[in-house]
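Researcher: Go.
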Amino acid sequence: MPNSKYFRIGYGIIIILIIIFLSTKVSFIFRPLEIIFTTLFFPFLIGGVIFYLLRPIVYYLGKHRVPKALSILLIYLLFIGLGTLLVFLLGPQLQNQFQGLIKNTPQIVDTLNDKINGLKQNEWFSRFQQNEYLTLDSITKKASDYAKDFSSNLGDKITSLIGIITSIATVIVTVPFIVFYMLKDSEGIGSRVENVLPYLQASEAKRILKDMDEALSSYIQGQAIAAFLVGVMMYIGYSIIGLDYSLILAITAMITNIIPFLGAFIAFVPAFIIGLIMSPFMALKVAIVVIVVQQIDGNVTSPLIMGRKLDVHPLTVILILLVAGNMAGFLGMILGVPFYALLKVVVSHTYRLYQLNREKEHNGIKIVD
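Model: Structure:
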């Protein structure tokens, strides 16, 4: 049997695939692990994001000799106070806009249908309609079928909604405790690595963890600040042009902005629809506001805040979003880029260690087992 390096790699891949295949045949063993993972995933995901956002403040207070536990409690009290202040300042306006949006939804839908019917009569659009695979009637029919399906399964939807609300309540209760202990013990990982691994392996492992930590930290903090600034600029712009539901649309833009490139387009669609219903000129003003804000974000705020720490080419980001979005939907588009950044760190360090081992083996020394 061949014993070359490539055949050994092939044997390893075959063994891994066999293990994965056999694992699917003993689901009673792995099903509890799946339940544990799905239960803990979102609390630790949200907790990890908050951890990276609050850690700089904890470090700053620590430099001024404030005990870490006290720092965390002070930060919690500060954010509770700021949250309460925001509720008092923006809560009534947000509530009025939500109520108005819910109340006017039938009218918005009817107005949108009238504009679509008017668009059908347009000579230029009728040429576009000649494409039998993509017509306005087919799109409208699919939307109508989806609405009917949603209505017929309303009971199941309500049950799912109750489950989602329960999960959200669980996350709200558990995340503060997760973040507290993550912030309190954030510096203990390095010492645990040193205790488990030999010196050379521990030093390399700590270096990999440090680079992964820096990549995640720069991405999460930068995206959060950039998204907040985009939301503020959108709200100011929408308020200046007099767009209805400006606060809701600005919050939508802030949330979707965490998705690179595509987030701006996703937020633009509902704002453009509301503007179009008000008047074609308002839709034009919405487009101008979005273009101006995205130019400021793309050329000023994001480069200043995030720089080029991730060193990911824009085309690579687009491909990641397409693949991750197809695999895991909205969540995949959010997590795709940071996951790629972490994978890039691990692969680059692994390749560097491989190169070092090859050099040392030529000299008769092997540094990493």
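Model: The first helix runs from residue 5 to 24.
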